[in-house]
Amino acid sequence: MAMLVISNSYIYGTWYCNDGRARASTGIKGRSIKKEQVDGRDQDWGLVDIGALKRSEKMILNKVIDAITKYKESCARLGEPLKKVDCEEAIIIASGRLPKDKNRFITDYESMIKDMRSGKLLVPRSQKRYASASIDNYQWALNRILLFVEEQGMKLEYKRIDKKWVEKYIQWLTERQLSKNSLAFSLQYLAAFLRRTYDDDKHKNPIGFDKVFNVSSEESDTVAVSIPELETVYRLTTSLSRERARDVFVFGCFVGLRADDLRKINHYILVGDYFEFHTGKSDERVIIPAHPVAKEIWKKYNGNMPVYKYNSGLARGICSVFKQAGIDTPILVAITKGGVKGWRYYPKYDLVSPHTMRRTFATNAIKAGIPTRKVMQFTGHTTEDSFKRYVKLDKKENAEDLASHPFFTTPLSQSH
Predict the structure, then answer these.
(1) Which uninterrupted H or E stretch holds 344?
(2) Cβ proximity of 129 and 119 under 8 Å
(3) pLDDT per residue over 128-144, tens digit each?
(4) CATH number, domain 227-404, options 1.10.443.10, 3.90.550.10, 1.10.510.10, 1.20.120.140
(5) What is the Cβ-side half-sphere exposure of residue 70, based on CA atoms within 13 angstroms?
(6) What's this model's pTM, rounded to 2 decimal places?
(7) Are 138 and 112 in contact (CB under 8 A)?
(8) DSSP of 278-310, one letter per residue?
(9) What architecture does CATH give domain 104-213?
(10) Domain ranges in the chain?
(11) Which end of the chain is more exposed for a tag (fewer CB within 10 A), N or C?
């Protein structure tokens, strides 16, 4: 099937997705050739007359074809359905149809990203350089904002961003079926940028400090996976893409892998019965006993584990695996929207994320009776207070453990 078609004299990127045909204009005018002239050339170009295009236009269209191809391959690798809206977003970004007017908002945002990459701008609290994954997330947040204002026919200016604008943006993000974390982080990055530029006197709009941005992403960090659940998932027969995601996740649960170190998973070196690794956050050397399952997975890939560039890719894979395994215990989660706290039940498979790996490791280690201080040497926590907030002991499981305690079983002495 061709990835390029012509309609009303314009060239469109297109592909059939699971929920319909994706179709987005590249903004390039073109003309058609006859079907009999198609033989002997790349079928991705369809009936587009390549010879009538400028070199710069061919380069853009090649980027569009490449973007569609990469999106298809990504979905196939993760076992995810092709979504029309995501495919169209890839086409629009590849064709460079995002707003080009360099107003102050865009200029300031791009300047911030440039300073992050160069090391000129540091993380406020730690005064360390921004991780490449964080910088990429800031860039994707900007791309979403630009797509939003283009679709809404808005001008992107500091003074136009008010509470109604943000609420409309939240609705737009929700309609695109982003995960709860992706939605929350998109808003957090925008709010952080608005606060930074406000403090730097680049504008006088205090909206970045408003509670309207408070859409919590905390639910993905509030669960840990039990050993029986890990065993169920690990023994599950599933697709190749899900198997790879499952293996990375289970390995991470037994070595305490940080989500931020996901790209460095192959830096774990098996030395005898121990894994050695340097953490990305504190650059400390960690030596941890090799659990039989972790060792089995490491040997399965000969030390060359699947690498996920973005946490979202692994998150989609492991959520699918946990759902397939039937790990759907309802979890009551506190959600904050617009500064108002509420409660909602989510199936457990919907709350598992790459951040769950280290939390699972810490929780299961404590439940197994390993002293807190020794576990902290693996997780990198410096205080017991911060570590205890990190460990998640299931309330029902805790109640069952205490049910046989004499305090709950000894009746009161009868008085005479």
Answers:
(1) strand 340-347
(2) yes
(3) 888 887 888 888 889 88
(4) 1.10.443.10
(5) 11
(6) 0.50
(7) yes
(8) E-TTT--EEEEE--HHHHHHHHHTTT-----SS
(9) Orthogonal Bundle (1.10)
(10) 4-90, 104-213, 227-404
(11) C
